Amino acid sequence: MAQVTLTVNGKQHTVEVEGRTLLVELLREKLGLTGTHIGCDTSQCGACVVHIDGMSVKSCTQLALQADGANILTIEGLAEADGTLHPMQEMFREHHALQCGFCTPGMVMTAVDLVQSHPEGLSEKEIREGLEGNLCRCTGYHNIVKAIAAAHPLMHAQAAE
Amino acid sequence: MGYQGIGASVRRKEDLRFLSGKGNYTDDINRPGQLYAVIKRSDRPHATIDSIDIAAASAAPGVVKVFTGADIVEAGLGGIPCGWQIHNIDGTPMAEPMHPVLAVGKVRHVGDPVAVVIAESRQDAKNAAELLDIAYTDMSAVANLTDAVKPGAVEVHDGVGGNICYDWAIGDKAIVDGVFANAHKVVKLDLTNNRLIPNAMEPRVALGDFDTSSGDWTLYTTSQNPHVIRLLMGAFVLHIPENKLRVVAPDVGGGFGSKIYHYAEEAIVTWAAGKLRRPVKWTADRSESFMSDAHGRDHVSTAEMAIDKEGHFLGLRITTLANMGAYLSTFAPAVPTYLYATLLAGVYKTPVIYCNVKAVFTNTVPVDAYRGAGRPEATYLLERLVDVIALETGIDKVELRRKNFIGVDAFPYQTPVALQYDSGDYQTTLKVALKNADWDGFEARRAEAKKRGKLRGIGISTYVEACGIAPSAVVGSLGARAGLYEVAEIRVHPTGSVTVFTGTHSHGQGHETTFAQLVVDQLGVPFDQIEIVHGDTAKIPFGMGTYGSRSLPVGGSAMVKAMDKVIAKGKKIAAHLMEAAVEDIEFKDNTFTVAGTDKSKTLTDISLAAYVPHNYPIEELEPGLDETAFYDPKNFTFPGGCHIAEVEIDPETGVVEMVGFTAVDDVGRVVNPMIVEGQVQGGVAQGIGQALMEACTYDSDGQLLSGSYMDYAMPRANDIPGSLSVATENTLCTHNPLGSKGCGEVGAIGSPPAVINAVVDALKEYGVRHLDMPATGAKLWSIIQAAPSSGHTPAMAAE
Amino acid sequence: MYDFAYQKPGSLADAVSVLSGDMEAKALAGGQTFIPVLKQRLNKPSTVVDLAGLGLSGITVSGDVITIGAMTRHADIASNADIKAKIPGLAHQASLIGDEAVRHRGTMGGSLANNDPAACYPSALLALGGTIKTDRRTIAADDFFQGMFTTALDQGEIITSIDLPIPEKSAYEKFRNPASRYAIVGVFVAKFASGVRLAITGASQGGVFRHTEMEKALSANFAPDAIAGIVTPADGLNGDIHASAEYRAHLIGVISKRAVAKAA
Ligand SMILES: Cc1cc2nc3c(=O)[nH]c(=O)nc-3n(C[C@H](O)[C@H](O)[C@H](O)COP(=O)(O)OP(=O)(O)OC[C@H]3O[C@@H](n4cnc5c(N)ncnc54)[C@H](O)[C@@H]3O)c2cc1C
Ligand code: FES
Ligand code: FES
């Protein structure tokens, strides 16, 4: 057992883990943050995507110990403290970009990073390519693409405020 | 807020929790003192189990118990039951070999569960599972249909000769043969329907719990139908009466059929929790899902149509081999018979039809219903055949369809294969789809693509499907071992808010929203005062769950009936309170009124009176306002429509790009257009996946070659065309109170043949008549290569 | 996963000493290959040595060579202005590896050390004629790859950086596996004053290889037409459920032409 200290959704935690403990296991099992999901065992589905120091990462493909000192944002930490949804969450709801909701946390976290890193704008094709690492079996992606396109101006307007 | 009743695109209630990471999926549930189960699965397609030495595994760190098939036998547990019995042509029942919870004596497919290791942690259980010493003697195996029925093929089950589970037929063969003998022309097509792996994004999970004080069992499971699991597992496998067994299916991350069935793992964790007096949890790794979730489709068929000079369809003759896999899954026998062959009239007036289906055992994962279940197979067969007829007769493919359509005035229409369609308007959905897809402008687009060196093609499919399953007496006569009604309880609380308990289950369909809309519409209760409860046998009276696009037509109709009862009782209370005759009470917009007066009472007044019955007709009426209805549908529902696909093929690589897709569906009354569109979009994406990418592949020895996302290609965002257009043109269902037909499966049913018809159209200069799904680049390249017009170099290379 | 000890040494010497002292110790870079392998229980290391604390990431240009630290992430290579300007084929290649989340973690050193026959970078290193620097020596690209999943690295040897000569022109074209999205055929072409080098990944049973016949033709005439007639034999190529050896052989021709068209 070893100790890892990391900040998750603004709160610092020090947790005992094994060498093999994955970040997703730390989040789900040690911190009870079950919003981050596990959809595969080959690092391909993206259900587990969280942000580490602002970048989208597959938390199933990262040891907990590698995240020592890191700042992690999960789906639970995306909305404001008063419950106001993040524009990406809002647009997912507005455009019916989720059905069963299982892929959704990873999809939203990927989408937030995608939009943040493209202030210049995103074409529909770029959005689709940006979702390369996220599988959804329910929606056919159509509304997810719409939601992300709609969130782009909102997020950048908010950032500019 | 605006209007939130039927017809409004109300934003979904459930989204708030899913979007903030607060969903409650089975794997999110943990019970105090929980143990972890890991299943040791066969890595052999077919072998005898000569011995299992559990000593080392049992002694490994953290291990609490190891169970094998012998323990299950000793405990007297039953096998996994099958919910449907089909009869052979000669009247004898199908072969129904034992489907053990854990293999006994033999393994029959890669993934067949052999033992379970239960330990303090998942990793301990996994480590120990590697220490199980299992001695196998390999047997030869059969994975594909045509091999399995060859004379001399190895038998998957001893005594099931020729691996035939059943040999079933519908229609009068002599009459159909007679029509063929005299026909102007017969067009014949051999085709397969590719085997698929459903791949709901949430892997299956089962958590068994045993309450040592009450002696009750609870199973938390990723199921589309908790009551069905309680029935099958309780009555047939574990012999636990309903009152001692609770099944909870909380938030479920997609199902598409694969989470209907009762699986061995559910029985294992429930039973083990009782034995060990501790909760036991099993969570599938995705690679386990690939070899343990029921697969879908997998047919090999020959189809022949007899036609007259003008291209009228005179008769259809079909033989189909359908893969059952190694054991019969819950619904499996029904899929290629009553969900497939009965649909072979399609949207056409074909007067006589004969179909012979042989269900076949193979050394593969069990095959069962996957989104559409039988209807995609029927639709693909028909719509490919119709295109080939067009090709061979020179009749325009749209014209050919039109002239054979069942007319809009022919409903109710009795097909020659048992079903009676209640409503539909195929000419209209076709017309609108042709317009939405700019069918007439296609040749210009083809010419433009050609300049870019691309082969462009357009394909159409016009289809009908049968869902809203199902009338219990009908399915009972067809071999179902259960009824297929649905149940709803409407509980009006004292202050007028409403809780709905439904026996259907939402795993993406949005029932918490659409079902609330029904209540807004009928009772006039505000949307935010309505709660929908599903997925827990302890809370809901009963239910058959969600599949076969049944939730709204059947489950919603049960709600309507229960609300009718609430209103009827409310009228009696209102009559009493307002001193009027019951016949004079009207109910509208949440208010009971005495006709022709301004006297009125709100539903809240009435519910309050019902729960505080001080001034109340207590002699005639019980207090309370809580009504339950069981609704048994009178018929199936028949959504239909027209799908048009447009593709471009890169002739140098064979790669197909979807460049357009248009769906115009008739789903009956639409409660929430936004949700209907979403259902169709998702279904179409799965259909595109089947047509272009997805292939569950076994080698001839029964090894699963497409056992992970590294090898099983599923559509990603980039594989779906941006120009996906979905619309509805609805006729109402005539036999349920909502007029709704269901929309969950139409996307996956109508789309595959549209896509393949487009691919074949794109390749027409190569003389391609047919190709099997999936139309991968590799496959199309070899077709282009082999085509007489292309020679041996890829001639088209447009630099 | 089997359990293991985790270490994150602060110096290269410490890392080398742990890795050399224990045959069962393994280096961890971005983990985008290694962790999936661990999850499948295909590897049972005693100690996992995280290279993240060694200061091995960064991109520098000196003269006609770009040096990339072994721990430089795919995403940083894809977006680096110098690489985009001087070796656009490499930036493009990095942008096609996996997905953004994978690119945020995966490293060039890890990919090269792993030498997956379907990986992308091996083709860049070989086509550019780069050099691998390790804790103990330099290895020329032509000597580095020794068949699928096999390289010239010794047990415990750590790649520290990669030197890539700047070509006049470069391009990478990738034909993706529809499921895994790795390369079924990936072609990296680099044109230098001294001639053209073209390397192919994904296709061969022996891993990445140079297509010398195409190189010769392209050195004479750097145009797609120059290689249009070259037929690559299917012998020795991979065949699987996604693509037969014949299809791969054919794709080598098509994808190579496209790479050249892009570079030219
Ligand atoms: C979903 C997905 C898709 C992918 N798609 C592609 C793709 O399309 N193309 C592609 O090329 N790759 C692809 N990859 C692989 C990815 O590029 C990996 O990042 C890469 O192969 C390994 O790099 P890494 O830094 O993650 O190394 P790790 O996984 O940490 O290590 C890989 C191996 O290299 C060794 N190693 C690592 N660094 C060094 C070093 N500096 N010196 C010596 N040995 C070292 C490790 O011990 C280990 O054996 C994909 C991965 C995933 C998960
Ligand atoms: S769980 Fe599938 S990528 Fe992480
Ligand atoms: S919403 Fe169900 S997988 Fe995406």
Written account of the structure:
The complex is a heterotrimer of chains A (161), B (799) and C (264). Chain A is α+β, with helices and mostly antiparallel strands. In chain A, 34% of the residues lie in helices and 16% in strands. Chain A folds into two domains: 2-77, Ubiquitin-like (UB roll) (Roll), CATH 3.10.20; 87-160, [2Fe-2S]-binding domain (DNA polymerase, domain 1). In chain A, a hairpin with a 2-residue loop joins β1 and β2. In chain A, 64% of the residues are buried. Chain B has four domains: 31-139 and 198-292, Alpha-Beta Complex (Aldehyde Oxidoreductase, domain 3); 140-196 and 295-396, Aldehyde Oxidoreductase, domain 4; 419-464 and 637-799, Aldehyde oxidase/xanthine dehydrogenase, molybdopterin binding domain (Aldehyde Oxidoreductase, domain 4, 2-Layer Sandwich), CATH 3.30.365.10; 485-631, Aldehyde oxidase/xanthine dehydrogenase, molybdopterin binding domain (Aldehyde Oxidoreductase, domain 4). Helices cover 28% and strands 22% of the residues of chain B. In chain B, the strands form seven sheets. Chain B has a seven-stranded mixed beta sheet with strand order 3-5-1-12-9-10-11, sandwiched between helices. Chain C is α+β, with helices and mostly antiparallel strands and 264 residues long. Among the domains of chain C are: 1-52, Uridine Diphospho-n-acetylenolpyruvylglucosamine Reductase, domain 2 (2-Layer Sandwich); 169-263, Enolase-like, domain 1, CATH 3.30.390. Chain C contains eleven helices and twelve strands. In chain C, α2 (34-39) links the parallel β2 (26-28) and β3. The longest helix of chain C is centred in the C-terminal third of the chain and has 19 residues, at 245-263. Chain C is globular, with a radius of gyration of 18 Å. Chain C starts with a strand and ends with a helix. Chains in contact: A-B, A-C, B-C. The complex binds flavin-adenine dinucleotide and FE2/S2 (inorganic) cluster (2 copies). Flavin-adenine dinucleotide (FAD) sits between chains C (26-34, 36, 51, 70, 97-98, 102, 106-107, 109-111, 113-114, 116, 119-121, 153, 158-159, 181-182) and A (43-44, 61).
Please state the average pLDDT score of chain C: 97
For this structure, the CATH topology of the largest domain in chain B is Aldehyde Oxidoreductase, domain 4
| Helix-residue proportion of chain B | 25-40%
Number of strands of chain B: 28
CATH class of the domain at 169-263 in chain C: Alpha Beta
Number of E strands of chain C: 12
Cα gyration radius of chain B (Å): 28 Å
The largest β sheet of chain B comes out as:
7 strands, mixed
Bound molecules: flavin-adenine dinucleotide, FE2/S2 (inorganic) cluster
Tell me what the CATH architecture of the largest domain in chain B is.
2-Layer Sandwich
Low-confidence stretches of chain C: none
How many domains of chain B? The number is 4
> How many H/I helical runs of chain C?
11
Name of the CATH superfamily of the domain at 169-263 in chain C: CO dehydrogenase flavoprotein, C-terminal domain
Strand order of the largest sheet of chain B: 3-5-1-12-9-10-11
Rg of chain C, Å, rounded: 18 Å
Q: What fraction strand of chain C?
A: 15-25%
The structure class of chain C reads alpha+beta
**Terminal Cα span of chain B:** 57 Å
